Amino acid sequence: MTDSNSAENAVVIERSFRAPMDLVWQMWTDPEHFKEWYGPDNATIPVAELDLRVGGLRRFCMEVQTPNGPMRMWFTGEFREIAEPARLVYTESMSDEQGNAMTPADMGMPQGHGVTTEVRVELENVGGRTKMVMTHVGIAAESPGAAGWAMALDKLAARLDAQAVR
Amino acid sequence: MATATDEAKLTETFAALANSTRRAILARLAKGAATVNELAEPFDMTLPAISKHIKVLEQAGLVVRARRAQYRPCALDAARLQDVSSWAEQYRPVWESRFARLDDYLARLQPQGNDRSAR
Fold first, then answer.
1. In the predicted model, is pLDDT for residue A32 greater than 50?
2. CATH number of the structural domain spanning residue A17
3. What is the pLDDT of residue B16?
4. How large is the average pLDDT for residues A62-89?
5. pLDDT at B35 exceeding the cut of 80
6. Which one of A3, A18, A136 would you mutate to disrupt binding with B, by most B Cβ within 10 Å of its Cβ?
7. Is residue A163 included in any domain, yes or no?
8. Which of A116, B44, B57, B84 is deepest in the core (most CB within 10 A)?
9. Would you give the end-to-end CA distance of chain B in angstroms?
10. Cα-based distances in Å from A23 to A39, A87, A117
11. In which band, very low, low, confident or very high, does the pLDDT at A143 lie, cut at 50, 70 and 90?
């Protein structure tokens, strides 16, 4: 997409569900529902804690079966905006079991690379179905170095685009 | 798991980009292919040091090297860099599969609701 979203490095997905808005809202906010759909097919969500208030903690665990046995990944974040049942905004980072978010260095990423993401969910009733627009944004850390790095990369990508057109 | 592999690849690419010399090499290659000697020219560095940086870029899939020519010129692999420049897009298939599961789950939760809307 070439709208403002591309500048903030986002993926936007629009879907329509055959369900009322309040039920779709619960899918994101009720831990028991959330556990049922969020993980990939070969994964389960054994733990999900969703403290549904602004600033409230989100924490969950995804368990994946591997040849070496089950592997657990933890995620943490907080709710930023709650406007039931129309708009939900939360952050998410990979974390350890105690909920300490991993730093870019922990993940082998350059300083300032966005390892925190923000997810926005917007729901709307359209003819008895629920239209959902989900926006997943990567948040770059706010260090001058990070900004410079991102800009350099953008410039390089733009140059490549220009070459590809030729 | 495909997404875990994608994640690992992405991490490797970001690690390769986390170095100003390597980014300068990429910027030079964006203008066209070059030999290791040509790439080394602007830097106050030994050839082996430059070669090491190129190897990191190669492993991350950002640079490809010709097999046949004796001097093996380096070229940019633009596809990889474009992947990185829109890394959020990599999450699209992850979300698509989640929402497919959500569809199924919603259908299980409200079988009558489905009948009504089908009528």
1. yes
2. 3.30.530.20
3. 83
4. 90
5. yes
6. A18
7. no
8. B57
9. 40
10. 19, 13, 25
11. very low
Q: Are B4 and B94 in contact (CB under 8 A)?
A: no
Domain encompassing residue A71: 4-141
Tally of domains in chain A: 1
Q: Give mean pLDDT, residues B58-65.
A: 90
The number of folded domains in chain B is 2
ipTM above 0.90, yes or no: no
As given in the structure block, the two tokens for residue A34 are 């959330």
Nearest to B78, CA basis, from B60, B100, B63 = B63
pTM of the model: 0.61
Q: Do A110 and B78 touch (CB under 8 A)?
A: no
Q: How many CA atoms lie within 13 A of B105 on its CB side?
A: 20
Compute and round to an integer the Cα radius of gyration of chain B.
Answer: 22
CA A122/CA A87 separation, integer angstroms: 5
Residue type, A34: F
Task: Indicate yes or no: CB of A113 within 8 angstroms of CB of B14.
Answer: yes
